[in-house]
Amino acid sequence: MNNVTTTMSSDEGVVGNFVSRRLFFLQYLHVLEFVVAVLVFVVINSLRQRRRYGLPVWPFLGMVPSLVSGLRSDLYEWISDILCEQNGTFRFKGPWFSSLNCVVTADPRNLEHLLKSKFSVFPKGPYFRDTVRDLLGDGIFSADDETWQRQRKTASIEFHSAKFRQLTTESLLELVHARLLPVLENAVNQSISIDLQDVLLRLTFDNVCMIAFGVDPGCLRLGLPEIPFAKAFEDATEATLLRFVTPTCVWKTMRCLDLGTEKKLKKSIKGVDKFAEEVIRTRKKELSLQTEDKKQRSDLLTVFMRLKDEQGKPFSDKFLRDICVNFILAGRDTSSVALSWFFWLLEKNPVVEQKILAEICKIVNERDDMKNGADLKSPLIFRPEEIKKMDYLQASLSEALRLYPSVPVDHKEVVEDDTFPDGTLLKKGTKVIYAIYAMGRMEAIWGKDCREYKPERWLRDGRYMSESAYKFTAFNGGPRLCLGKDFAYYQMKFVAASILYRYRVEVVKGHVVVPKLALTMYMKHGLKVNLIKRPESELQVYLKNNV
């Protein structure tokens, strides 16, 4: 009897354990089903919001997962695709409590509104200044209000002076004929490939230093010596841009701990500062030794050194350093990067190259010495009035800038509640990104052939016709319109004509050309090219056709 009782108790225990485990499993299954149901709901709801916002909006993370995907591919094309789908404007939602929320637009009506009509309502703003301050300080690119106005006014007076214009043309002529062409000729003679983007960056760096600071760094010369400043400056612009796609609390923490891209930025800025401080120190020493009877310098840095701040004191070395760095960014990167994309596009569009060459030869043919049978082998130097006549070349350069603007995106911040012309509501403090790269790919702006390279869209009866600054924003617009726009075109035309008249530029087979994520649109891997001497017989054909 006892044995039976014991056996029954044991069986009941086994059954009880089985039932208990099953109940636990069923409870766990219910919880799992609930979690899966919630996840499915979140995913479906997030994906549904893509129709409304252009991208999935995830709890806590916002649109960051999509942004990460864009960063891994081509960020500028990613932004362009979204803007095309969203009719030119979309609202980016960052993670909760982050600084990444902003409105992104490529609508010309909105650009005219923020760059011109409501200029005072859309300054660069504290967020932009805080993000770029380590590199650009209080220079003209990041400054607002009186600080910006003072720099703008001083630079404008200098840029429009006859003395400054003469200096720019003379220095460019010297750089092209005494340095650029010998470097290119050396590459041809040795049958070696060169990185044309690097060569052009050296050219524009020497040029901006000569006209803005009165110094000649000598970057462009045979052998192409390594220039520590150039690498430091490029690394600094890249690391600075990454701050805009990183929550502020994250990059500031990385800066405090000296980690990752912030460590790289800190190191590169030291290289930038070293160059700027040396320029300022040298100039101050020269000015202290300068006597009244000596010819006074007229470069931009010297002009600022002679001015006083609001307290009637000379500007600090820190402010002068910011002046240097900002004008290097404006004068070095923009023209050279634009020319690099121009030569890349030209190789893919040989008919355009033929038309440019025909235009150059036609203009050269109008010279009196050519009419009298001048020898083609003699060095040809283009005259300012000839450069001005090159309408098709300017159209070709503008078309390159339309598709590959030197500054692909720019930033503003709203200081009071406002509404864009397209109906987008803007609360005070909203950050606005205007996507200049994307504008060149909008059918609503440029038509169905917007992605094609067609210089003819800039011509009316064979003459170059500029477009609205709010449709073609490569040189910005409104009160912040680029002061050096005219010189940039002259510089690019002079360099391009001088190269194309002498050489065919062929991109090395298999060389990958993609944009780099930086403040300016560098080519990530440079532009490796082979130069082929243009035969005299080819030039003769164009010259005879223009008789």
From TrEMBL:
Give cofactor(s), names only.
Answer: heme
List the SUPFAM superfamilies: Cytochrome P450
Which Pfam families does UniProt cross-reference here? p450
The alphabetized UniProt keywords are: Heme, Iron, Membrane, Metal-binding, Monooxygenase, Oxidoreductase, Transmembrane, Transmembrane helix
Transmembrane parts of this sequence? 25-44
Organism's domain of life?
Eukaryota
- Asked if Oxidoreductase is a keyword of the record, the answer is yes
Family label:
Belongs to the cytochrome P450 family.
Q: What is this protein called?
A: Cytochrome P450 86B1-like
Q: Please name the source species.
A: Gossypium arboreum
| Classification of source organism | Eukaryota, Viridiplantae, Streptophyta, Embryophyta, Tracheophyta
